[in-house]
């Protein structure tokens, strides 16, 4: 099974990092294909915690070649900080490859992210403030800076000038900020460029040749389906393609080469930032899930919003990604509940919706229709086979499988690398 996509099926933080890490010892390449350091993946290996943002989680597995694909936006300062932090802990980062076509998050993109959010006030997206949206906006507007531009000072200066042209009008006249000079930006980027040079590659060619040679490539998404710029809860989304198609456009590997698409999904739901969230719990139960699940953002430390599992979202994710498998994570967080409600459909102004409403206003007004499943009290964190789970926990997983229409191939019962129940091998 040479090419496997691992992506988030909800609003992010489903445990993609852990799922990728677990397959790490058996894959040759792990490619990050979208997003940037807005992502935060916590991976726990032998009790040691690693927080990754820009680097693919595969970097923690010795044999793996980690790749930053063309669909990613790269903050060079963050990249080198992350590499240095891992080097200091003895992780080998020397194999890292970065696409020559990936876009660079320039310092002015971070500034614009922050001032725009402030300007939006109540209408803000709740971004991570890392410059992600403005960098993708530059890419689509064709005024972006790409990795390859860093190695020609003349071209780089021209491109920065082009990018700053309109931005300075905006910064000075609308946001009342000082103008940013071409020189300061040029200096910031050139200082870091030389260190990047040996990592730069035609990653599309590398990956296709690897697949030709029978190697295994794992495509690791940042963010998630409901944050995808096309298929998510627009405008409360990130600015990249976090769904399965993004694995192709963001890496330069064609769809005919992808063998499997794995959706990682929490046994309940969380969301960071603004936007609609039908099953959100604003009561003590929401706080219970946040505390028990440790639901605080890896990137910004913000408390995550929490709620019950939403099977409508799961079905939608299965559809738009063509999921072949689900990995259900954090089942252990639900231990100790008498009943566990699961949203099976929405009520919108008295009309039942079994599928995601296409109309944004309807989704904003969706009220969950719940089915209550029986809970369990036994500690499940040491379970390593499906049969060891209490009968009601088994029934919960099987119910999720049936409601989403996609088989559940693995179940997470703790944060550690080993704390997983495998039902179907994701790589065969
Ligand atoms: P990602 O962004 O999708 O990689 O997810 P994050 O790393 O942001 O958030 C997932 C959190 O849940 C991390 O702290 C993981 O260590 C933790 N985690 C992942 N799987 C499990 C699980 O099955 N059980 C528990 N208790 N924690 C998990
Ligand atoms: P991982 O990969 C959860 C959210 C932000 C905000 C919106 C837009 O760890 O699952 P952005 O900075 O991307 O322009 O913010 O998207 N967001 C995430 N939420 N997990 C993430 O990544 C996220 N990356 C962005 O909170 O609502
Ligand atoms: Mg995360």
Arithmetic mean of pLDDT: 96
Count of individual domains = 3
Annotation field: number of helices: 12
Q: Biggest sheet, open or closed, and with what strands and sense?
A: 10 strands, mixed
CATH class of the largest domain: Alpha Beta
Strand order in space, largest sheet: 9-7-5-2-10-1-11-15-19-20
Class by SSE composition: alpha/beta
Helical content, roughly?
25-40%
> CA-to-CA gap between the ends?
5 Å
Ligand identities: guanosine-5'-diphosphate, 6-O-phosphoryl inosine monophosphate, magnesium ion
Strand segment tally: 20
Enter the CATH topology name of the largest domain: Adenylosuccinate Synthetase, Chain A, domain 1
Low-confidence stretches: none
Share of β-strand residues: 15-25%
Shape, principal axes of CA atoms = globular
CATH architecture of the largest domain: 3-Layer(aba) Sandwich
C-alpha-based Rg, rounded: 21 Å
CATH superfamily label of the largest domain: Adenylosuccinate Synthetase, subunit A, domain 1
């Amino acid at each position: 099974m040479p090419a496997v996509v691992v992506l988030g099926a909800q609003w992010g933080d489903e445990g993609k990092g852990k799922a990728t890490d677990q397959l790490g010892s058996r894959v040759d390449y792990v490619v990050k294909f979208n997003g940037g350091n807005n992502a935060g993946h916590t991976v726990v290996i032998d009790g040691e915690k690693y927080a990754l943002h820009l680097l693919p989680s595969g970097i923690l597995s010795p044999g793996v070649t980690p790749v930053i694909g063309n669909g990613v936006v790269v903050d060079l300062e963050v990249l080198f900080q992350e590499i240095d932090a891992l080097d200091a802990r003895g992780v080998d980062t020397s194999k890292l490859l970065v696409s020559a076509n990936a876009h660079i998050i320039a310092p002015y993109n971070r500034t614009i992210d922050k001032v725009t959010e402030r300007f939006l006030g109540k209408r803000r997206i709740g971004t991570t403030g890392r410059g992600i949206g403005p960098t993708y906006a530059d890419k689509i507007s064709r005024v972006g800076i790409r990795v390859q531009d860093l190695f020609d000072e003349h071209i780089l200066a021209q491109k920065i000038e082009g990018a700053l042209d309109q931005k300075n009008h905006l910064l000075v006249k609308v946001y009342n900020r000082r103008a940013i000079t071409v020189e300061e930006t040029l200096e910031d980027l050139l200082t870091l460029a030389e260190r990047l040079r040996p990592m730069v590659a035609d990653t599309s060619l590398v990956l296709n040749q690897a697949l030709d040679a029978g190697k295994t490539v794992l495509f690791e998404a940042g963010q998630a389906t409901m944050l995808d710029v096309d298929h998510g809860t627009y405008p409360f989304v990130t600015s990249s393609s976090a769904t399965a198609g993004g694995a192709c456009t963001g890496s330069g590997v064609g769809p005919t080469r992808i063998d499997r698409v794995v959706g990682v999904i929490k046994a309940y739901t969380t969301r960071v930032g603004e936007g609609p969230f039908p099953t959100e719990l604003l009561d003590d139960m929401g706080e219970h899930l946040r505390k028990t699940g440790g639901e605080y953002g890896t990137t910004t430390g913000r408390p995550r919003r929490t709620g019950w599992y939403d099977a409508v979202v799961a079905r939608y994710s299965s559809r738009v990604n063509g999921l072949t498998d689900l990995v259900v994570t954090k089942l252990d967080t639900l231990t100790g509940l008498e009943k566990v409600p699961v949203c099976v459909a929405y009520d919108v102004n008295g009309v039942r919706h079994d599928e995601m409403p296409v109309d944004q206003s309807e989704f904003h007004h969706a009220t969950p229709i719940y089915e209550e499943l029986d809970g369990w009290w036994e500690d499940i964190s040491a379970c390593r086979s499906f049969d060891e789970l209490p009968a009601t926990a088994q029934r919960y997983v099987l119910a999720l499988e049936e409601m989403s229409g996609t088989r559940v191939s693995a179940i997470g019962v703790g944060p550690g690398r080993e704390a997983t129940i495998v039902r179907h091998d994701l790589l065969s």
